[in-house]
Amino acid sequence: MTDSPTTAAPPNPEKIKTIRAYYKLCQKPENRCIVLKDKTFFNTLPTLLKDDSSDVIRYSVKILVLLTEQSENIEQLLKSTELLPALSEACENITNPSVNYNLVLVSSRIRAVKNSLEARKAAAEQEPLADAVRELDKGGTTLHRKFVGRKSKQVIMEFDADEFNEAKKREVERILLKKKGVISVYITENNAIPRAVLRTIPTIEAKEIALAVFSAGFEYIAQIVKVEGVEEKFEMYASEMQKGIGVAKDFPEYLDDDVLHVDPASCVITNEMASRGAGQEGGWFSSITSFVKTSLW
């Protein structure tokens, strides 16, 4: 008596019905981000590519074709460490020509975005300001924020309160971070008057900072310095600088009392400084004590 051959498990109608519902949902681009936020479905996707039902696999691949039409969605898919291996395995095991074609299409899209992200990361390491400026352009708040205590000098610039607002604050940070030689930017207030406390390399002059700020649409800025212990203000106007008059000299730097009360979340530094780490001598430090000890006053 011979054993009867093993039969494949019958397809699960409810599972197929659910996958088809997700496919219909993904046909509208505005719904795709909602699908990607569904943690259960997101975590199940790699498993669905190995399902016993050819219908489940076919609809899962169709969903992936729709989800990979936009790079933003692909970046979300890349958060799954199991998806690419599952796609590679499915390409080897599935013989249906149309499904296999779609699998190759999905894989190529995902790998293209993955390679692009890796290339951008490598480029950002070569260009330390790039990531910080991009985050400011997007209104991001995930910038590296630390105190800086390497060999540098402090420049304090004061603004007209009537010209200053939150949008201008962002624009000032963005422009000054682009300025070569600027290490950190801290926006604060003194008696309700906005100020920018900058750490720069020693060769940066106040007039260079002023010109950068004027390019953001400001008409007035003043450099705040201490001369023989007395605070003095040297005012500059965009209209005068355009005519070549009223250009400030590079006045002495000093430690403003306000620096001792800074909020670290408001001090923006470049990626280069952040990557150096606190373990290196002469690098940046995350404490106010180290900041004061390593400054040049």
Outline the structure in words.
- The protein has 297 residues and is of the alpha+beta class.
- It has 2 domains: 13-126, Leucine-rich Repeat Variant, CATH 1.25.10.10; 133-293, no CATH class.
- Helices cover 48% and strands 14% of the residues.
- The chain has helices at 13-26, 29-37, 39-48, 54-67, 71-77, 83-93, 97-126, 129-137, 166-178, 206-214, 238-242, 271-276, 288-293; strands spanning 153-159, 182-190, 193-200, 220-227, 230-237, 267-269.
- The chain has a 6-stranded antiparallel β-sheet with strand order 5-4-1-3-2-6.
- β2 (182-190) and β3 (193-200) form a beta hairpin.
- α1 runs parallel beside α4 (54-67) and α8 packs antiparallel against α9.
- It is elongated.
- The relative contact order is 0.10.
- Mean pLDDT is 75; it is low at 1-8, 141-149, 246-250, 254-262 and 276-297.
- This is Armadillo repeat-containing protein 1.
- It comes from Caenorhabditis brenneri.
- It is found in: Mitochondrion outer membrane.
Structure characteristics:
297 residues; alpha+beta; Leucine-rich Repeat Variant; six-stranded antiparallel beta sheet; elongated; disordered N terminus; disordered C terminus
